[in-house]
Amino acid sequence: MEGEEMLLVNDISKSFGGIQAVKDVNLEVKKGEIVGLIGPNGAGKTTLFNMISLFLSSSKGGVQFLGENISRETPERVVEKGLLRTFQTPVGFPKLTVLENLMVVPKQKGEGIFSTFLKRKSIVQHERENYYKVCALLEQFNLFQKRNELAENLSAAELKLLELCRQLMANPKIMLLDEPASGVNPVMLDKMVEHILRLREEGMTFLVIDHNLGFIYRICDRIYCLANGELIASGTPEEISNNERVKSVYLGVNENESA
Ligand SMILES: Nc1ncnc2c1ncn2[C@@H]1O[C@H](COP(=O)(O)OP(=O)(O)OP(=O)(O)O)[C@@H](O)[C@H]1O
């Protein structure tokens, strides 16, 4: 249902020794929203992503996903529940082709030679369905022509799209995108915007980190701004772009100068 709470971050904090990377942050994402997370280098954005996706434990506070406290789950369980993330540097397999990168499916739990033999038919069926799904995704993201290319030969923008496709193979309910626009040229950036907006039309929800504010303002319904680990502003793109604190910390504009 539109407007339903999907992700709720409650009063979350993280310290690394003496460094307070994230301090008492509250954040929410509703179903169907595209929410941005901005802030200067070292603001705590990636640390926050790492805690939401449970790659990192929080020092304090917790995360609710679809009304359920997931703070004690493993990253794998969170993926199974539908919370997926990308990384600043796409992961994937550089020495595999584009098609192979998407066909790689995690082995089922408890799968052995005997059970695999018994389930042979269903596995073949599963592989076939997977193949059709991969081809459809590659078509949608204009990567079908590159399906036999090694991933290491793709451009930065194509790698970002491949990373999106990899996450989509796992049927996410929400996608956390870490700098999807970095290294992407303006033409491909327009394509990236189109893809993200299309996915949202189809029901996807996003939380997006990016340093490219133009990109963030184009795609986001709401934006949170972090600085020194603390939330300093939240609002619509218009509100954030006119916020004096955001200008001063993020854009390096002095509050008095910009007034
Ligand atoms: N594993 C770690 N050990 C020690 N300090 C860390 C660790 N990870 C992050 N930090 C520190 O926490 C703070 C927040 O870092 P973080 O990477 O979350 O910021 P960011 O907003 O994602 O920055 P950027 O935009 O440059 O990626 C920084 O001061 C960073 O040096």
Automatic annotation (TrEMBL):
Pfam families: ABC_tran, BCA_ABC_TP_C. PROSITE patterns: ABC_TRANSPORTER_2 (PS50893). The keyword Transport applies. GO terms for cellular component: plasma membrane. SMART domains: AAA. InterPro entries: AAA+_ATPase (IPR003593), ABC_AA/LPS_Transport (IPR051120), ABC_transporter-like_ATP-bd (IPR003439), BCA_ABC_TP_C (IPR032823), P-loop_NTPase (IPR027417). Keywords: ATP-binding, Nucleotide-binding, Transport. This is ABC transporter domain-containing protein. GO terms for molecular function: ATP binding; ATP hydrolysis activity. Residues 7-253 form the ABC transporter domain.
